[in-house]
Amino acid sequence: MEKGYVHVYTGNGKGKTTAAFGLAARALLSGKIVYVAQFVKDMKYNETKLEDHFSNITIRQYGRGCFINGEMPGEEDVLAARNGLDECRRILSEGQYDLVVLDEITIALSFKLLDVSDVLRALEGKSYGTEVVLTGRYAPKEIIDFADLVTDMTEVKHYYTQGVLSRDGIDH
Amino acid sequence: MEKGYVHVYTGNGKGKTTAAFGLAARALLSGKIVYVAQFVKDMKYNETKLEDHFSNITIRQYGRGCFINGEMPGEEDVLAARNGLDECRRILSEGQYDLVVLDEITIALSFKLLDVSDVLRALEGKSYGTEVVLTGRYAPKEIIDFADLVTDMTEVKHYYTQGVLSRDGIDH
Predict the structure, then answer these.
(1) What pLDDT digit, counting tens, does each position of A123-141 carry?
(2) pTM of the model
(3) What ipTM was assigned to the predicted interfaces of this complex?
(4) Paired sense of beta strands A131-135 and B57-62, if any
């Protein structure tokens, strides 16, 4: 069995979740089995429709999304994230998925919904062959140190400064 | 008709083509019509199999790939890239595609297969509603100045330094 590596896509620029779904698509098209866990998020996005087209992907959301819109996270957000991490820890250790994406997990860390030591424990316990991708801003040093590949997606320029809102099929 | 914007995904880290295909997948899943032009590349990748699963994507390659493997580009590479840009200029201007990806076009620029003024002309002549994504290292200042969104995908760490070669379904 080939070794699976740990990727981190972090930084303040556009492309983190997008790249994770690009990698998921590439893996799906090669016949790999893919699990996408979305922390914090609770909306259906265009990318979550991949499930309608491919039988080898499972997408689950472990968020309530509300505090993205300005509210601070509460107990329910913490509970949702912790239940998600518990499920992901099991999934990572069992090895039935070739690629596991932990989307926005570093945002969950940055809002203290999760503890970095628990995330590291899940990564340490992963099956040898499982490839893992973590996305989100503010990836902490412990995660970067642990990862095999880290890309910082740095915003040089973004059209939101032109007043462009999130658009269907492009931004979500 | 909504305005289409110009994205650039550049930098030395993993994620540029991956994000472009992630965006292509998101657009496909929302019902948009997508064209992917791959410059320099001539191999079939897992991501190019998107054509087998979605009728609303067209992928064309305008490269010979050889100089990636150490050979310097020759006349045939220049011709392939220029023919590709001619086709893309027409496609961008006609507006029948909602999203056009110009994958590795900045590599074609950096190897002087194309002239930056010709690429700018193609972008300037694009249909109002067409969204365009350019990828590749070494995006020149003229392209960055022109773009609406630029992400620099900076390599913090890469597993090739551990001797990991490009793997099926993950790296290609």
Answers:
(1) 999 999 999 999 999 999 9
(2) 0.96
(3) 0.94
(4) unpaired
